[in-house]
Design brief:
The chain is α+β, with helices and mostly antiparallel strands and about 400 residues long. It is about 30% helix and about 25% strand. The protein has helices at about 30-35, 45, 65-75, 130-140, 155-170, 195-205, 215-225, 255-265, 310-320, 340-350, 365-370; strands spanning about 5, 5-15, 80-90, 100-105, 110, 120, 145, 150-155, 175-180, 185-190, 210-215, 230-235, 240, 245-250, 270, 285-290, 290-295, 330-335, 355-360, 385, 395. The strands form three sheets. Strands 1, 2, 3, 4, 5, 6, 7, 8, 9, 10, 11, 12 and 21 form a 13-stranded mixed β-sheet that branches. A six-stranded antiparallel β-sheet has the order 15-17-16-19-14-18, sandwiched between helices. The protein has a two-stranded antiparallel ribbon with strand order 13-20. A hairpin with a 2-residue loop joins strand 16 (about 285-290) and strand 17 (about 290-295). It is globular.
């Protein structure tokens, strides 16, 4: 019996509702600008307090606005209903290999967060509980899930990849398409009950499923008591991991003292002449302080390979020990790989931030190995691309 199931009642976009997920932004004003330019986007429902007409409200106070926007979207024909469907998904762009996935529902009781907890869905990244509470409140208010959890099929990924490619090739014209901010085309095809749907859901649930994107959404499903959650099951061949960097808006000490504290902790620090870029490989992180860049090799500890990942060392030695900042401090912004190094360093040079931290990306192989061992990744350490688009397939929750 597979843990992956059809969506009992879905709402399928007819176009124009696609949205970046709520965690894909480095700046709140950017969210408001995108909603203003794309009024039918589901982003105004997922982030209701950032919509232009709801600014000034808290997230919870803006939830009635989200409910009204979603009701209007269904009433005006932006979505059409479908029952007992899975949805084929392809993301494509010139010069890139297509990425494939399957929209479906996954059993929440399969989520495992430690080695002694059974389950085929592995979630092992620290989260920010305030964001989880927001996702729970949104689902309760809407009675629907708008953004999927991205799950990586590690057991039969190659077989699933081939099957999804063949199914989309044979499916004809897509039910809808959407173009994201990077110019990628997101296409979907509905797949109703029958042998093909059964075969694909069996493959999708045929091995361990690792949460690649959507740690907060998956925990929200557990916290909110949902029997199932909306997911896109994808394959290792369909994804890559980009850098996940940090900006610190305000230092708790001087730049000179920060460097001295890092040296005292055992770091090797060398100035960088020229532009500060993302390191080509792990082991060294790059910093941009006012007027100067630095290559910093943080000292390894004796605790083990996971604790010596660059992201773990940055969180522990640089943010916590040298700056006294908790990872959830509002002065820290987590900036995904869609933003180039020049954007981060430009924020420092323009005085809108005081420190940029550039970190080499984790490899897909390392990510999978850590998760299969049921170890916990540091917060915001993996920026998977391409990302599943929110607002294309909406799952109605049972009442």
């Amino acid at each position: 019996m597979t843990v992956v199931h059809p969506i009992a009642r879905a709402w399928i976009t007819t176009g124009g509702t696609g949205a970046q997920n709520y965690d894909e932004f480095a700046d709140d004003a950017e969210i408001t600008a995108i909603i203003e330019a794309n009024p039918h986007s589901a982003l105004g429902i997922e982030m209701p307090h950032r919509a232009p007409e709801s600014q000034g409200k808290s997230f919870l106070d803006a939830l009635p606005d989200a409910v009204a926007r979603f009701a209007e979207a269904r009433a005006d024909g932006s979505y059409t209903p479908a029952e007992q469907v899975t949805v084929l998904y392809r993301i494509s762009a010139p010069g890139e290999e297509p990425a494939y996935g399957l929209f479906a529902m996954v059993d929440t009781d399969q989520i495992s967060t430690r080695a002694d907890e059974p389950g085929l869905v592995i979630r092992n990244e620290d989260v920010f509980i305030a964001k989880v509470r927001e996702r729970v409140a949104l689902a309760e208010a809407l009675g629907h899930l708008l953004s999927p959890v991205l799950l990586l099929q590690t057991g039969c990924g190659d077989e699933l990849h081939a099957a999804l490619a063949a199914a989309t090739d044979a499916a004809g014209a897509p039910a809808a398409t959407d173009t994201d901010q990077a110019g990628r085309t997101h296409a979907i095809w509905l797949l109703g009950p029958g042998p093909e749907q059964d075969a694909l859901t069996a493959l999708a649930g045929g091995g361990d499923l690792v949460v690649a994107d959507g740690n907060h959404r998956s925990l929200a499903a557990q916290t909110g008591g949902l029997r199932q959650f909306l997911a896109v099951i994808t394959t290792p061949a369909s994804v890559a991991i980009q850098p996940y960097n940090r900006l610190v808006s305000e230092l708790t000490t001087t730049p000179e003292d920060l460097l001295d504290r890092l040296r005292a902790a055992g770091a090797d620090i060398e100035p960088i002449d020229g532009p500060v870029e993302v390191p080509e490989a792990g082991g060294t992180v790059h910093l941009r302080l006012a007027g100067q860049g630095y290559a910093v090799r943080l000292p390894a500890t004796a605790e083990g390979p996971l604790e010596n990942l660059d992201h773990a060392l940055v969180e522990r030695l640089l943010l916590r020990d040298a700056l006294g900042l908790d990872p959830g401090d509002k002065r820290i912004t987590y900036v995904g790989g869609d933003y180039p190094a020049s954007w981060l360093t430009g924020e420092v040079d323009a005085g809108r931030a005081e420190l940029a931290i550039l970190i080499a990306p984790v490899t897909v192989a390392d990510f999978v190995a850590v998760n299969l061992a049921r170890e916990k990744m540091p917060r915001k350490s993996t920026w998977f691309t391409p990302k599943a688009r929110g607002g294309l397939v909406v799952a109605e929750l049972p009442r």
